[in-house]
Amino acid sequence: MFTSGENDYREWRAERLALYPGSVRELLVDIGGLKDVSARSKAAILASCRHANMAIYTCRDRTADRAAVRAFGEIFGLRQLDHHLCTNDDGVSELAVSTGGQKGEYVPYSNRGLSWHTDGYYNHAQEQIHAVILHCAQDSVSGGESAVLDPRIAYIRMRDVNPAFITAFEHPDCMEIPANIGEQGEIRPPVRGPVFSYSDAGTTLHMRYTTRKKNVRWRDDATTTAARECLADLLEDEAGPVLRFRLAPGQGIISNNVLHNRAPFEDDSLQQRLLYRARYFERIDSS
Ligand SMILES: [Fe+2]
User: Fold this and answer.
1) Separation of CA 69 and ligand 1 centre (Å)
2) Domain map of the chain by residue range?
3) Predicted TM-score (pTM) of this structure
4) Rounded-to-integer distance, Cα 285 and Cα 287, Å
5) How far away, in angstroms, is 277 Cα from ligand 1 center?
6) CATH number 3.60.130.10 given to 6-280
7) What is the DSSP string of 236-255?
8) How confident is the model over 79-117, as pLDDT tens digits?
9) Nearest residue to 32 via CA among 75, 66, 2
10) Average pLDDT for the chain
11) 3-class SS at 69?
């Protein structure tokens, strides 16, 4: 689709736009629990992933642990976990406010907002994150809303405005993340690559993106700058295709690493937000 002729693309575009949810309600699927997914619920999650690259599930059974998150992923063909800096040994991270240690230095482990991004945009090309599960064990007292957008819709809207924006975002030098240097030296070398890349003979889109201004170097070129502005405008458009929700305990989102952000939140001494996050090198098997 992404590398084929204009006629094929037009047909695919029309289908994508027709199937894309007009409301977050269309993403919702009820399940028994993370280890108790009926054939019907599984089919609904997979259909939602084909339409929007994501589904939001609601568990009847509120008990869940990291092992259950892994078991849930395996139902959808997700097995290769990214064991990055702050994950536990099993590859599942616990996102909660951390006041000390290595985690405390990173925004996901704070109550601050997270700007628009896809997960692992700082990973090497061979270790890109293609799927993510985010399960809410406990919500915050207030705040913490999320917004999401299927990268295919971002692609379509940008190509509608100017096809040259797509070419700019495909450039291998488009976005560079400088090295992560800790007190002990280099934690991660610099990573440079495109925003948009394709697999499966050009039928699958992968997006690597962050709106953050610090610790990112964009290709210095007028079209790239205009492409970034176009995307930023789309993501901030209240009347646009961005979908918004707030995860309740027992809810989670399974996605092919869609664009997302997070609003700041507040905990108190009795209630502290806890999300389990698993990031995978595979995509959800929705074939
Ligand atoms: Fe994220």
Assistant:
1) 17
2) 6-280
3) 0.94
4) 6
5) 9
6) yes
7) H-TTSS-EEE-PPTTEEEEE
8) 999 987 666 778 899 999 987 766 666 788 889 899 999
9) 75
10) 93
11) helix
